[in-house]
User: Fold these one by one.
Assistant:
Number 1:
Amino acid sequence: MTDSHRPPPYGSLALIAIVVGAGAAAFAYTAGWFSPNRLTPNKLVSAFAPPSGPALGHRRNHAKGICFTGSFEANGAGAEISKASIFNKGQYSVIGRFNLGTPNPDAADATVRVRGIGVQLTASDGQVWRSAMIDPPFFPVSNPQAFYALLKASGSKDPNAMKTFIAENPEFARFGEWAKSAPWTGSYAEEPYNSLNSFVMTNKDGAQHVVRWGLVPKATVVPMTQEDFAKLGPNVLEDEIVKRVAAGPQSWTLMVTIANSGDPTADPSKDWPADRRKIDVGTLTVDKIEAEADGPCREINFDPTVLPTGISTSDDPFPAARSAAYMKSYDLRTAEAKYYPRTPAATGDKQ
Amino acid sequence: MTTASQRFNPLQRALHWLMAICILAMFFIGVGMVSTITPKFLPLISTHRSLGIIILALALIRLVVRLRYGAPALPADLPEPMKLAAELSHYALYALMIAMPIIGWAMMSAADYPIVVFGGVRLPPILPQSDSLHALLWSAHYYLAFAFFAVVLLHIAAALFHALVRRDGVFEAMAPIAVHQKTIAGE
Ligand code: HEM
Ligand code: HEM
Ligand code: HEM
């Protein structure tokens, strides 16, 4: 060493320790290790699980479901507002999943108020559009933090938790009203499914519109009470859709609703007035049902931010939060696949 | 003063520092994005994909440049264990610079996510959809990211040790601009 006669380099060593220590600390800070109050995807996803723990291998929410395949027949009208190739007149393949808004894959159908659908439309150029929609006309809460608060309150042992939550999130009352009074139906095929979140569509001239979309059932809707529906059995929705689609394909109209300026685009708990312009962009047809365990929808994450060129996210904070949460849920369930065997015969997939 | 053979050539130095910035950014973007549900999540993850692919391209170019032009010899008086540590850590850094982006790409392929980079370019999947592969690659991307960060911290500590304590010309070999050679100046 050339510096053997110099004093020990304590200052330099301390500087090195500071640089490395500061680097590690900045990293840990960014990762949230010093911020126990940060709402992370992990926390949000964990909040769905009942006290007994999540159903391993299954989606952390909307856990009960069944796969389908079918097609989307675009009529060409969507091209007016979006350059997405899926709107060019033509027929495109679809993979999807009917589901119930519950973290319990074995929940009895009549105990679950919210029904949903996940769809993936694949255009001929390979671009995919994924959307996960539900049947209420508006969302229970205004923002993702409030959704977390709702999950916490509804899972809380404190008898006042829900009251406090509603006082702080008054928009929830309307959803409660809907949940109580809206009729039930006996079939996934009779449900409308709404994006609730808003997105931006850009057409080939660069014009942008904020939109929401939804699937409107072509099937005749037979309303019923929750009691009557409960009598049909705990798994009637899956049994019914299997038989119904075997007897004939089921269809929905894909409707895009365009916001007027000033409409609440960042808050899915506020539906837009009924007179907003709606464009019928095509028909979704379901022609085959498959069990989830080894079906084509199992390993798809119906992340609402998977969008083709021509559709993008808006100022609605939900799609980003959902994307982060769905990715976490997907990571967990794919790592737990052994708890949800592909062949029910092997051990039986329901615990 | 340094002579050309004592330093990495300008292309190597430019690649080293450009990539150092990109890779350090990737660590922070990576752990930042997976711990937030705010709207920042989307630009962070799309930057993570694009920057990751840029790093892959630069790393492959850098590997070719390194094989073609070599590296200046380490100081003759550097103890053998330190030489070995330097060499092994450089192998590890090259391996990680190339492996991490490929694992990220493969992990997203196995999950059947579209892999969109640079705001609209769709990369083809490099693996079929598979939950077991996804889980494996997710673990690899996660644990290797932390290992990579640890190796980089050690590497920075070593570089500063050469610069401030040993003053043996190793830091100057990679310094972005010519610095006065301290090997002789230090007597
Ligand atoms: C911050 C709010 C939300 C959170 C944290 C959340 C969370 C989740 C999670 C963790 C899953 C399982 C994902 C998977 O493993 O693939 C899921 C599925 C689903 N969510 Fe959400 N969600 C939210 C908002 C919404 C909204 C606004 C809608 C509808 C408008 C919705 C509709 C659905 C549907 C239909 C599914 C099932 C998709 C499928 O079949 O895979 N969610 N949600
Ligand atoms: C030098 C290259 C890269 C580095 C250093 C890096 C680093 C990281 C880090 C630190 C995380 C967070 C891990 C955690 O805390 O959970 C992460 C996550 C992730 N990275 Fe990378 N990454 C690289 C390249 C890529 C590339 C090229 C892609 C995709 C094309 C990618 C896709 C992802 C994804 C999707 C996640 C989230 C995984 C999940 O939680 O599901 N990465 N990466
Ligand atoms: C993400 C960050 C970094 C990575 C991935 C990285 C990677 C590398 C690699 C692979 C080499 C070997 C070069 C070769 O043999 O081709 C190297 C050399 C070097 N790096 Fe870094 N580096 C990083 C950051 C830094 C920083 C921040 C410093 C300074 C504080 C630094 C200082 C040096 C020095 C002085 C050398 C020359 C070592 C020698 O002569 O063998 N590096 N780096």
Number 2:
Amino acid sequence: MTDEPIVVLKNLTKSFGTNRVLKGIDLSVRKGEVVSVIGASGSGKSTMLRCINLLERPSSGSIEFCGENVLGKDFDLRRYRTKVGMVFQQFNLFNNMNVLRNCVVGQRRVLGRSKAEAEETAMRFLAKVGMDAYVNARPRQLSGGQKQRVAIARALSMDPDVLLFDEPTSALDPEMVGEVLHVMKELASSGLTMIVVTHEMSFAREVSSRVVFMDGGVVAEDASPEVIFNRPANPRTAEFLHRVLDREV
Amino acid sequence: MAFFSEVKKIWLAYYPQLFMGMGNTLLIALVSTVIGLLIGILVGIVRTIPLSRKPLLRWVQRVINFLLSAYIEIFRGTPMMVQAMVIFWGYAFLSGGTTLPLLPSAILIVSVNTGAYIAEIVRGGIISVDTGQYEGAESIGMSHFQIMFHVVIPQVMRNILPAVSNEFIINIKDTSVLSVIGVVELFTQAKNVAKGTFAIFETYAIVCVMYFVMTFSVSLLLRLVERLLEGKSTYTICGSQSDSASMIRITKEDAPND
Ligand SMILES: Nc1ncnc2c1ncn2[C@@H]1O[C@H](COP(=O)(O)OP(=O)(O)OP(=O)(O)O)[C@@H](O)[C@H]1O
Ligand SMILES: [Mg+2]
């Protein structure tokens, strides 16, 4: 980890019509950090994540990536998206392509890599997530956990600087959560910068370098997992953790 | 029976003419369905481009979308027989008397008409593709046209194939209205034969069977194509954990479910 900030959100807001979902988010993520984002349903976690890679257009505020203003007029959005990967709750693999092509198509069309290079890169990351034996399979032929691992390989194949995860294990059967978390832990220890929206408190506690607690569209607390889970400063954090951890036991 | 002997007589005397009409009918229907499909895909894609955030571009998009909707509504909302008259004689009127050659006119009319229907089918198909497919593609930096070309349209094509087959079959039957401008397709030939033999019922009974043979064969053929497009239901797992040299085949039934 370095001190160099890679993603910086300043006073970010987002409204859907009259519904103010993000009410001024300030967040700075440094290279190599693994930031877990926790919070109640509807607190705006997904919306914040989707604003970071501009799947949603923020209403106001700023986003900086490596010191560059992402919302600027002449900013190269497509190149930026290759630098900021995203893993979705619903996987979002391309249904019309097999596993290998899912990981190759972006590299070829967006990064302009040769077929050989793209396939080699894809195979490297598919092996890393343990899915290299399934190159010919279609998404509909895979289990949820397998799909999610392919989705992670697809994102990694673009060589991103940051990977965003939006509840990557929430759509999975319990017995498949482990295999995906295992892959994510390995990525975290490899030094990849990750922002992970999650309901997996054990992941937040054990793997992340920082935990952000969101409440009602703002960052209510931002501290180390040790502080968040043992002596949170904000009573709302304590209340939330009490609720979810109670349920887990 | 008198009916059958009359039918046989007409068939033996006129089958070259009737086959020639049938050939033109198939040619017009096939070429027009293919061109109509291309028009429909193009129009469907353009109509689903999200509006730009730049005001000038957004304005241009609105004008184009308006024109395309007008095209679709007008061609869906008027009979093809009337369209044929308006286009064919409208050209003659504007050019001061020269008419378009018949076969190209026929293909033009049916293509443009089919394009209007297929544009709506394609738009429906594009809308029904899960937004997750777009977001997955956007998140790796693909452009709108790349997303359409590589991700959305292939899925749409598979879903709309039955509807497009249906358009093809409709076109085989509806080319008969082109006889109003004198295109020599199967219906025009039937009229000619009936005029020569005075055996109206027998002639049209033959033609009726000929139309049915065409539509039913096309129907069967396209169902076969659909089945082929379904793709393999099996995939190969390369190697296994216990035996690294083995090839295991997994069938759809064995594959894990969601
Ligand atoms: N596209 C949208 N249009 C309108 N409202 C939206 C849209 N997306 C999200 N919202 C609203 O924004 C609020 C926050 O949603 P968001 O998905 O960011 O919450 P979340 O913290 O991710 O919740 P969860 O834990 O349930 O995923 C919700 O009230 C939701 O209804
Ligand atoms: Mg969410």
